[in-house]
Design goal:
mainly beta; four-stranded antiparallel beta sheet; WD40_repeat_dom_sf; WD40/YVTN_repeat-like_dom_sf; protein biosynthesis
Length: about 375
């Protein structure tokens, strides 16, 4: 499969864009920059994980092995390991540099969300509630010595894959079943053993992974399913998006809602712009209604909101269907969006973006 790149300019949006048209054959589910920002990882309903050079959109490689929709991915801070969760009920650990699958964990139901801890030593994952199985949150320890596993080769389901035989890695370090509304998204906080979750009911909560108890919750964080959760660099606050047509910034310690950004369309993703006071949100009308809706009415745009003033400051068009996922470059120089249309669009900000005065003449010191 060849990847055709279309380079476009849009002075009104003050950016230039790499449009990756044939990187995926089905809709995107999540995209993620690595810590340096030179690599962009994407996953999709086509069972494939791709990695791209973020500066020009060239595909570096693929990670193949899943047999279902890949719902979620995350990469560690050193760009050594990648984890992925899929509808084939598997959590996989990959070597970023050569694309090898190092380990496979299998579960009764699909893996909907994965995330590394800030020290890269642990991975948290959510498996969905289905077919009589409870939804579960599991935390696994990783062996980061060598290639990440004590690797032995064995035959599994008639295919040869590298498997970690260390007993402590076969079972989760911690596992618990959240009571009530199903968890949809999760992330480690800056406090050891505390995991942040978003739920179908719109609730956000903090869980102690050792005891499995809910330490704190905000039942009315949103009025509908929480679709995305992204932390600030220091993890002291986070942004969520929801089908209730809002994105909100919350305090990690208290879960108090700090800011609300209200739109006219269900939101699938929200991201924080480093070094600038902006929140990026994306979503759109459901796919089944897209064929009867114009691009403008469908709201298939990335929308920029002032993080402090709660005012919309700009929009960027491009996708032909709902935006499913947004990620911002760690240095704040670009952002990427993945859509229901199967396209990944990488937008590089022009100089005017950085020269703008979002606070007027007021100078904010970091």
């Amino acid at each position: 499969m060849r990847t055709r790149l279309r380079h476009s300019t849009d002075p009104s949006a003050q950016r230039y864009c790499w449009d990756i048209e044939n990187g995926h054959e089905r809709s995107l589910t999540q995209i993620k920059f690595n810590a340096e920002g030179d690599l962009l990882f994407s996953c999709s309903k086509d069972h494939i994980i791709n990695v791209w050079f973020s500066h020009n959109g060239e595909r570096l490689g693929t990670y193949e092995g899943h047999n279902g929709t890949v719902w979620t991915i995350d990469v560690d801070s050193q760009s050594r390991f990648l984890v992925s969760g899929s509808a084939d009920n598997e959590l996989r650990l990959w070597n970023v540099s050569d694309g090898k699958c190092l380990f496979v964990w299998e579960f009764p139901t699909a893996v909907k969300r994965v995330a590394f801890s800030d020290d890269d030593e642990r991975v948290v994952c959510i498996t969905e509630q289905r077919m009589g199985y409870q939804g579960a949150i599991r935390v696994f320890n990783l062996n980061r010595d060598g290639d990440g596993t004590n690797r032995a080769w064995m035959e599994v389901f008639l295919s040869i894959i590298p498997v970690n035989r260390a007993p402590e890695s076969q079972e989760p370090e911690h596992m618990f079943h959240p009571i009530g509304s199903k968890a949809t998204v999760c992330a480690f906080t800056y406090t050891p053993n505390l995991v942040l979750t978003g739920h179908e009911s719109g609730k956000v909560a903090l869980f102690d992974v050792v005891s499995g108890t809910e330490v704190l919750n905000n039942e009315r964080a949103h009025m509908d399913i929480v679709t995305d959760l992204q932390l600030s660099p220091d993890r002291s606050y986070f942004v969520t998006s929801s089908k209730d047509k809002t994105a909100r910034i919350h305090d990690t310690k208290t879960l108090r809602v700090l800011k609300t950004f209200t739109t006219e369309t269900p939101l699938n993703s929200a991201a924080l712009a480093p070094n600038r006071p902006y929140v990026l949100v994306g979503g759109g009308q459901e796919a089944m209604q897209v064929t009867t809706t114009s691009l403008r009415q469908g709201k298939f745009e990335t929308r920029f909101w002032h993080k402090v003033l709660e005012e919309e400051v700009g929009r960027v068009k491009g996708h032909f269907g709902p935006i499913n996922t947004i990620a911002v470059h760690p240095a704040g120089t670009s952002y990427a969006s993945g859509g229901e249309d199967g396209f990944v669009r990488v937008h590089h900000f022009e100089e005017s973006y950085f020269k703008a005065k979002p606070y007027g003449d007021l100078e904010i010191e970091d």
